[in-house]
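Incident log, support desk, overnight shift.

02:14 A customer reports that sequence design results differ from what the structure should imply. Their input is reproduced verbatim below. On-call engineer (initials T.W.) acknowledged and began investigating.
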């Protein structure tokens, strides 16, 4: 047991460093009746929040499904919890509800870490609501215990019997309608008493407190608590058994789109800088607790400043190296962030992880990328390789995505043992066999509809997700082989691809043919069937990636319409947190302006529901032209720009990136 605890403790700092989760809250499309059941139509399409974790960060079995939707009057929350033993004792409003098993909601409307709302509810539908103006980390916390959330509607539904130890229960659910007026009018924002503006966000956390019990016939509930601490399972772990560290809470973005439609939001790359400010604040509060005053000699992280405008009062300032947002946190806990006029897109760089280099050489390279303003590296290679390189990149301040080769898996020894896994063309020839592969030897495409392929790829996702310190997984080759190659490549292969050829048209394997003829697709819409098959496979993998708290990204062809036509990849259907359209203009015999035009068109086609990081093929862009292209993309409002790749990036490119900072 001791060894197990030590191992777990060694991982805790890694968990605690995971960026706070993000959830996109869609609009309710119809009325919701607050009866605790959550069976209203408006809930059906809404997505679940990422699974709860232990408050210190460890993953736990999935037992609590939370959804949120909103309309002009209310924020709605539904939590459905598994529970074998339903019990509760407290019936008086504003009792200390967490002495019973409960569900808790925390809302920091302006995200400044002060003036936030706490709401607790038990299985008897008893509520404790309170307003915290200054959290407990300060010597003089300020809590308004008699504050009431006016107009709150709340209900619980029990799937089982309460206080009845003789049977096994299934669980309980909580349904809440919180009036916007009660959230925003009390948050020191007198003018924001109504629903939030679409696209704006608030900080939230959710917690489920549970106690271990055993049957005790004499007690009022029929149960008695075991002498063990309660479990605290939360949406956004704080790294400590203390929920009142609001800087770690997750971000909920209020989307103008209906809850049933996919809309993604990226975790802010500036969270790392924000949390660094709070770490210094906590250190200083600890110092004052021990020595009676703040330290003026505290070593600060690079780029952070501390000033003392008054005797016992300091101000910390820092600028996010990725977005240029400047931030300020003072010793009273007031936080403020100012975004630059045009937010700076996050820069991504693909890195070939299998290249042989010493640890020192890798570190030097990662440092040069970070210094040039690159925020995230997308590294390929085995899981072992990624586990070696990830800490080196993180030490230089980079975020790391794993680069997963999805449907094209050249040289995959496991896959090669299963001929039936491979995609088949309209002539019946399989990618499994070397002599039948289209264009190049490394085109070894698998079938998107094969159930074993899906399980195998899910397993690859789980292996990558277990690497500590990863921020995301980026799928590549989430498509079928090219029915149509980019124009500039036709001469290379001596082909005219203006009309589709059966030789390059995949997947006609028996699994696909069978699924198509028995499926629900309209007969004859064979193209549509394959577009949907590829999208569904990505969405399955993306859900698994998010289940591990990671960003689900995908490298795609330049626009959904081009991608659908050329490689059966309609990525407007992808439930991705980020897509990286490979707008490699030379491949299409186009000029750099085409990158901007295509990006704008793709943004419109996806109605801004999917964040884009258009990708630049570095050999096609001389260093002197790079700043202009980056500036034009920034003006187009994309949240990211990707660069291909570390093998092609020159010292001149890196110097040009410095200008972009
Ligand atoms: Zn197939």
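02:41 Re-run completed on a clean worker. Output:
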């Amino acid at each position: 047991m001791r060894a197990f605890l030590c191992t777990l403790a060694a991982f805790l700092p890694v968990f605690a460093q995971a960026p706070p989760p993000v959830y996109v809250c869609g609009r309710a499309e119809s009325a919701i009746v607050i009866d605790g059941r959550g069976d209203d139509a408006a809930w059906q399409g809404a997505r679940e929040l990422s699974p709860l974790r232990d408050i210190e960060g460890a993953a736990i079995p999935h037992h609590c499904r939370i959804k949120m939707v909103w309309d002009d009057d209310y924020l709605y929350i539904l939590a459905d919890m598994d529970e074998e033993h339903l019990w509760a004792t407290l019936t008086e409003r504003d009792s200390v509800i967490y002495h019973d098993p409960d569900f808790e909601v925390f809302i920091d409307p302006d995200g400044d870490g002060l003036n936030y709302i706490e709401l607790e509810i038990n299985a008897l539908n008893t509520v404790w609501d309170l307003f915290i103006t200054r959290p407990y980390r300060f010597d003089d916390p300020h809590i308004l215990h008699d504050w009431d959330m006016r107009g709150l509607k709340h209900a619980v539904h029990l799937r089982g019997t309460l206080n009845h130890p003789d049977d096994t229960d299934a669980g309980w659910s909580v349904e809440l309608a919180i009036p916007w007026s009660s959230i925003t009018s009390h948050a020191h924002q007198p003018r924001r008493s109504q629903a939030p503006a679409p696209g704006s966000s608030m900080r939230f956390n959710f917690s489920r407190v549970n106690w271990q019990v055993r049957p005790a016939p004499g007690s009022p509930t029929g149960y008695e608590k075991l002498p063990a601490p309660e479990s605290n399972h939360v949406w956004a772990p704080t790294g400590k058994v203390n929920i009142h560290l609001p800087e770690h809470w997750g971000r909920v973005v209020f989307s103008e789109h209906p809850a049933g439609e996919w809309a993604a939001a990226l975790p802010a790359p500036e969270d790392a800088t924000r949390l660094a400010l709070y770490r210094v604040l906590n250190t200083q509060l600890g110092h004052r607790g021990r020595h009676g005053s703040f330290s003026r000699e505290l070593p600060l992280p690079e780029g952070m400043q501390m000033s003392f405008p008054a005797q016992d009062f300091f101000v910390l300032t820092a600028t996010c190296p990725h977005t240029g947002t400047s931030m300020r946190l003072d010793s009273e806990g007031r936080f403020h962030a100012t975004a630059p006029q045009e937010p700076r897109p996050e820069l991504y760089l693909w890195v070939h992880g299998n290249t042989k280099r010493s640890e020192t050489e890798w570190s030097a390279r990662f440092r040069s990328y970070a210094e040039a303003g690159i925020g995230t590296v997308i590294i390929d290679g085995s899981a072992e390789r990624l586990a070696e390189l990830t800490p080196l990149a993180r030490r230089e301040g980079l975020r790391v995505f794993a680069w997963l080769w999805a449907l094209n898996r050249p040289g995959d020894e496991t896959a090669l043992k299963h001929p039936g896994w491979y995609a088949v063309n309209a002539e019946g020839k399989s990618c499994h066999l070397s002599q039948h592969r289209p264009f190049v030897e490394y085109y070894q495409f698998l079938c998107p509809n094969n159930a074993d392929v899906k399980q195998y790829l899910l397993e690859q996702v789980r292996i990558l997700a277990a690497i500590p310190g990863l921020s995301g997984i980026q799928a590549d080759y989430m498509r079928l082989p090219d029915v149509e190659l980019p124009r500039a490549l036709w001469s290379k292969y001596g082909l005219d691809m203006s009309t589709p050829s059966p030789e390059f048209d995949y997947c006609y394997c028996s699994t696909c043919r069978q699924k198509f003829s028995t499926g629900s697709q309209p007969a004859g819409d064979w193209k549509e069937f394959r577009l949907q098959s590829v999208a569904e496979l990505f969405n399955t993998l993306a859900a698994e990636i998010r289940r591990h708290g990671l960003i689900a990204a995908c490298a795609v062809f330049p626009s959904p319409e081009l991608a659908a036509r050329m490689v059966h990849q309609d990525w407007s259907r992808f439930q991705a947190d980020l897509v990286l359209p490979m707008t490699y203009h030379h491949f299409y015999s186009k000029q750099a302006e085409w990158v901007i035009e295509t990006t704008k068109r793709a943004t419109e086609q996806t109605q801004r529901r999917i964040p884009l990081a258009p990708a630049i093929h570095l050999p096609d862009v001389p260093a002197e032209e790079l700043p202009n292209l980056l500036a034009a993309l920034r003006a187009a409002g994309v949240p990211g720009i990707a660069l291909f790749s570390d093998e092609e990036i020159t010292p001149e490119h890196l110097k040009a990136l410095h200008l972009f900072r």
